[in-house]
Design a protein that fits this description.
This protein is α/β, with parallel strands linked by helices and about 325 residues long. The chain is built from 11 helices and 15 strands. The relative contact order is 0.17.
Length: about 325
């Protein structure tokens, strides 16, 4: 396997994971590419880790916003600044940073080097390893933009997180707790213990209980699961409450039902956001936020990571690691 050090000292080439067609995990394969150069307002990052998200799986199989291949997936990244472009004043070579490349058209984190706009990044908290930092940006930004920016969660409010053991959900529980909310999460089986360990005040096992019968007087619902659970969760909201969904598909029925109940429903598409990244970093530095990593894979084993992700049995996040310094933080 080619490492960052090898490519830096020998050539201007790098290894990346590409696909030439839409399909299953087997379409992902290593390729050699020229190392990019940072443009105006950009940094060049020597990647240490790249997060794997459900949207990566969907784009691999369907193209979605990226259209037809070839392309390189990945939006979440943590690494070391290798070079800076014209006009960059926030970072300099050697700085450790993490962030989310612009979604959807900025994908490319499954690589040894990647460029991105400087304001997509924040300093990596020393408390997090590169693998942990790469697990955080997209899910953390969804949680922050839903709970802080959209719902404006305040101390004492009651927040219901659907899918609280998943990538977005387990971070959302911690963000809501840090905001002073009373947090109720839904999960299944032994995943309920994980959610309790994250600080949730109550956990509902959705396999054995009906969320609309168990949760009441909710101020904010964060939906990351969709389907009938989303509709039922609307019934838990108090008048004037809001449901924020990270799944904008099939939303007309949700808004219609919300109107009937006298509550609000809205959805969002995640955006890169330096301010929110700084907020997440501050929570991590204060010990109030830490992503749960289910497994890590070397970059060249991206297909295996996608296979595990599609199986749907992992809890938390999957991460691809590149080069040195990707393990657990001390």
């Amino acid at each position: 396997m080619i490492t960052n050090a090898d490519t830096h000292t020998r050539t201007n080439s790098m290894q990346a994971i590409s696909q030439d067609s839409l399909g299953g995990p087997d379409v992902l394969h290593p390729v050699e590419r020229e190392r990019p150069e940072p443009g105006v307002g950009q940094i060049l990052l020597a990647v240490r880790a790249a997060g794997v998200n459900p949207t990566d799986i969907q784009h691999r199989g369907l193209g979605l916003f990226l259209g037809e291949p070839p392309f390189t997936l990945g939006w979440d990244v943590s690494g070391v600044v290798e070079a800076v472009g014209l006009g960059v004043s926030l970072f300099e070579p050697g700085d450790e940073v993490f962030g989310m490349l612009p979604y959807p058209n900025g994908a490319g984190a499954y690589a040894e080097y990647v460029t991105g706009p400087v304001r997509a990044f924040a300093p990596k908290p020393a408390a997090l390893s590169h693998a942990e930092a790469a697990a955080l940006p997209m899910v953390g930004l969804v949680a922050w933009q839903a709970l802080v920016d959209t719902a404006e969660v305040r101390p004492g409010q009651r927040v219901l997180v659907l899918g609280a053991a998943g990538g977005i959900g387990h971070v959302a529980v911690q963000v809501a707790k840090a905001r002073g909310a009373y947090v109720i999460g839904t999960a299944s089986g032994d995943k309920c213990d994980l959610v309790r360990g994250l600080g949730a005040d109550e956990v509902i096992d959705y396999r054995t209980a009906d969320v609309a019968e168990e949760a009441h007087e909710i101020d904010v619902v964060l939906d990351v699961v969709g389907g009938k659970d989303r509709l039922r969760a609307l019934e838990t909201l108090r008048p004037g409450g809001v449901l924020v969904s990270s799944l904008p598909v099939e939303f007309e029925e949700v808004t219609a039902r919300a109107a009937e109940l006298g509550v609000r429903a809205t959805n969002l598409v995640v955006e890169h956001d330096r301010g929110a990244m700084a907020g997440l970093a501050a929570l991590a530095a204060a010990g109030q936020l830490r992503p749960h990593i289910a497994a890590t894979f070397p970059l060249a084993e991206a297909a295996q990571a996608h296979t595990l992700a599609e199986a749907g049995r992992s809890t938390g996040k999957l991460v691809l690691t590149v080069g040195p310094g990707t393990g657990s933080a001390s």
